Amino acid sequence: MVHALREYTPAEAAAVSGIAVKSVHNAIDKRIISKRDARAGGRSLTDDDLLRLKLWYGVGSILTAERRKRLFEAIADNPAAETVRADDYLIVDVARAREQLAGRADALREAGAVIRSVKGVSGGEPVFKGTRVPVRAIASMRSQGASAEEILEGYPSLTARMIDLAEIWTAAHPARGRPKTLAEHGLPMKSTKTIPLKGTSSGRSGEIS
Q: Are 114 and 165 contacting, i.e. CB atoms less than 8 angstroms apart?
């Protein structure tokens, strides 16, 4: 499927590429990828930038500056190439990297089409269309160890795909503040652990559960 060219914010680029958003900003600052004057305050990225970003943190950092330059030039000269030789011993599977990025970019677009904020529904929090289920709550539960089965049991209006979309959408649109715990979402903790603090006279008074 062919999509129109689009731009990504640093947070969206991080969600699609799997690179930490801090590293995305670092790549922009160090001109590993180009800066652009666009909706992200001059820090937007294109699909080509995402490929460069993924390869930089995947294999580019182990190459010399000259070999890294040749790698990116070879990709630019032959955008349809499936593999590119980085040096005498390293061949980069560019097609696989593009495939991974395209799949996650499609998921982010899909999430954007089914997630919305409605005034008066769940306090204006983003929800899936046709439900009152907060998207960030689902992503928070997943990040804290809740399985898809546990979430679906508590939210039967969702699907496994919607849970996946909640994760990538939330990564691309991070919220401020502390996420709620599993207990606050109404799910039990999977396990508890007691850790005695050093330097206390009583193990009981110095425990954390």
A: yes
Strands (E) across the chain are located at 83-85, 91-93, 115-117, 126-128, 195-196, 207-208
Neighbours of 205 (CB within 10 A): 9
CA geometry: angle 23, 24, 26, nearest 5 deg? 60
Question: Which residue type occupies 60?
Answer: G
Of the candidates 17, 61, 65, 47, the residue with the CA atom closest to the CA atom of residue 172: 17
- Alpha-carbon gap, residue 205 to 209, rounded angstroms: 11
Q: Are 142 and 163 within 8 A, CB to CB? A: yes
Phi-psi region of 177 (alpha: psi -120 to 50; beta: other; left: phi over 0): left
Over residues 71-95, the pLDDT tens digits come to: 888 888 888 889 988 877 888 999 9
- List, for residues 112-165, the tens digit of each pLDDT value: 999 998 776 667 789 999 898 999 999 999 999 999 999 999 999 999 999 999
End-to-end CA, the chain: 51
Sign of the four-CA dihedral 28, 33, 36, 41 = negative
User: Which H/E stretch holds residue 92?
Assistant: strand 91-93
Supply 139's token pair.
């992503």
Instruction: Give the Cα separation of 138 and 170 in Å (integer).
Output: 9
